[in-house]
Write a structure and sequence with these properties.
disordered N terminus; elongated; 349 residues; 47% helix; 10 helices; alpha/beta; 7-stranded mixed β-sheet; 6-stranded mixed β-sheet; single chain; 13 strands
């Protein structure tokens, strides 16, 4: 009888233990399921932080993220300082971390200055996508998205400048900031391409406009005094060719000095008409913002980002994936455009 009692007790204990284990497994499965459940699109929040919210370039950028909001049903908005300022961008990112947004897309004024805040956002579980940030350090962005390979863009800009200069003469370069990764890649690759292919051209100086058209205008007026035989100007920020072109036009030198650089039709059209600006090269910032948003959305949905992926965005129909110089994964499109007085009406921005 005692042996039977012991057997019953042991059996009851085993049943209790198995039940507990089964309940624990069920609980864990429930927790895991809840953790991996995707949010509904209307519950997702995408925030874009840009260099300057009032810049016409980023006004166009905002149209892209607004269209993404309409197409995908998420909440998507843009923030940025009134003037380009890395410290102000960092403060905005810190605030967005506190708001627990799902995605931050950052277009940094200074790449290095934004990295710590970006990493903090990633550590908080936020997807962080960069644009114009190819030189970011590994672990500070999930992806950087570029409209094209930056070095190829710089080389193409130099080919356009050289052709119009007759492949000879002195030229200068503008960058928005000496810490702006993309601008400095463009100018460095352009200069290297010039040295290898156009020996009769001479690079004389690189200037920092601080992404301010008036700065570029005042610098160009000084350049005309310092280098009265200057023949070419290459601009990186969208305001560089505008400021330089205005100074050249006022000096009556539009027919003697070639101006080529990044810019958009709505800003450059009058100077293109007078010949003070010869060519504006660009990409559609609206489509770039949209493409960044699509990448983040696909990541949230658990989709794999692979070579050749079609984002259904003009210029990003077959993406290429590479690695930036400091280890960041970079997505490249093929989205540059060329705007001349003949083609400017094709671009409604």
């Amino acid at each position: 009888m005692k042996k039977m009692t012991k057997f019953v007790l042991i059996a009851m204990l085993l049943v209790t233990l198995l039940s507990a284990c089964g309940q624990k497994a069920t609980d864990e499965a429930t927790i895991n399921e809840a953790t991996t459940d995707e949010k509904e699109p209307q519950d997702l929040v995408f925030a874009s932080v840009v260099k300057s919210s009032g810049d016409t370039w980023f006004i166009r950028y905002e149209t892209g993220i607004e269209q993404f909001e309409t197409d995908y049903g998420v909440k998507s908005f843009m923030e940025g300082p009134s003037q380009p300022d890395s410290a102000a961008q960092v403060a905005l990112i810190e605030d967005l971390i506190a708001q627990n947004v799902d995605v931050i897309i950052n277009v940094p004024y200074g790449v290095a200055e934004n990295e710590l805040a970006q990493k903090k956002a990633m550590d908080a579980g936020i997807i962080v996508i960069g644009h114009e940030a190819e030189t970011a350090n590994e672990g500070t962005l999930n992806y950087d998205v570029e409209a094209f390979d930056n070095c190829s863009y710089g080389e193409e800009m130099m080919r356009e400048l050289a052709e119009r200069m007759g492949e000879e003469g002195k030229y200068i370069q503008f960058v928005g900031s000496l810490t702006n990764a993309s601008h400095n890649q463009w100018t460095e690759c352009a200069r290297q391409y010039q040295e290898a292919n156009y020996p009769d051209m001479e690079f004389v100086a690189k200037y920092e406009s601080k992404e301010n058209q008036e700065n570029a205008y005042n610098i160009m007026k000084d350049v005309l005094k310092t280098y009265p035989d200057i023949k070419g100007v290459e601009g990186s920020d969208s305001g560089d060719i505008l400021g330089a072109g205005r100074a050249i036009e006022e000096a009556g030198l539009a027919d003697q000095i070639v101006v080529v650089g990044t810019g958009i039709a709505s800003d450059a059209k009058e100077l293109l008409k007078t010949g003070a600006v010869d060519l504006a090269m660009a990409w559609d910032p609206g489509m770039a913002g949209y493409a960044c948003s699509v990448i983040a959305y696909k990541m949230l949905q658990g989709e794999e980002i692979v070579e050749g992926l079609d984002l259904n965005v003009p210029g990003f129909e077959s993406i290429r994936i590479g690695t930036g110089p400091n280890g960041i994964p970079v997505i490249y499109g093929s989205a540059w455009i060329k705007i001349t007085v003949e083609t400017m009406d094709q671009y409604p921005f």
